[in-house]
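Throughout our pipeline, every protein is held as a single compact record rather than as scattered files. Such a record has a labelled line for the sequence and another for the backbone structure tokens. This encoding replaces a full spatial description with a residue-level series of whole-number codes. For reference, a complete record is included directly beneath this paragraph.
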Amino acid sequence: MFGALNRFIARLDSDQPAQSSAQNPGDNTLGFQVLRNTNKELPLEPWFDFIVGINGHLIESPDAGLFTTEIGNCAGNYCSLDLWSAKGQRTHQLTIAVPTLPDSLGLTLQLAPLNSTFNIWHILTIPSPLSPAHISGLLPHSDYILGSPSGTLRGEAALGELVEDHLNRTLVLWVYNSEFDVVREVELVPRRGWGGDGALGAVLGYGALHRLPVGIGEEVQAPGEHLFDASAEPNISEKAYGGSSIDPMPASNPNLAPPPMINPQVEPPSAAPVRTKKARHQLTAAPGSGFDEIFAEGEKKSKENDYVSSRKGTALPPPPKLGSASTALEQHPGTSGDLGEPGEAEES
């Protein structure tokens, strides 16, 4: 399924017309691939970066002398380079200072098409720890085979042919790791009979779905990141601080009369007094007074309420203490101690 999808995408890429802008170069666009960079001030990555334009002009001619002449014309000044990176297949501009002779930029370039960087193989899975791929240190998901010093790899079957030519002997591969953003050399010995399928013992991916991702620290342009359209007129008016920043809401009933206009030079009419219930007294601080006065007034009200009786008149005497019943009987000797049964009553 993935093979058919890769062939379909490759056919779509080949059917696209040649791009005339350096911002959107096609796969067949020529560029000067950076092979070596000895100038630490130039942020150019060997093998990954291509110079596809200079001073706004796309490189369309295979004549390298035109590019050299343009660089020489900018000696002692600045020039703008249109760069294409194999990491994420994106373009950007870089302005560099061109030194005068005999100094050089410290770059080694090679004219090549951009699709030369599409011949890479993505390590998808390594099913067994006994496979030559696992023993050599290849990592699944994050490793990409870029090439080999043993020969140029062109086409999906090129890596398989190179592995067959190096059975049971050492093969050196250039491998890029997307998690650490580094390129390293990996030595492995392809062999059969290790207990699994293939001479490498790894599942590889090739084609448009397995190209190099964007490098670490670079901004990723994902679908849906454009949240708002700045060209549309906003509902909130842009006014200075202190003014009305929100448009008025439309009236729900258009037949309602608008509110009366008020002249700022005329005093507003006084409203008729309305009888309302007497509100409970609330403690409020007078302007310029602190909270101490409020606390003092509240404490005074509390002390006054402590001495107010709940009944009018004199208060009732407290109940007699225990043992005072005999004293009451002595004061009233005619009173009998027999109070009768509960529920009995005497007629008067």
Notes: The first strand starts at residue 30 and ends at 37.
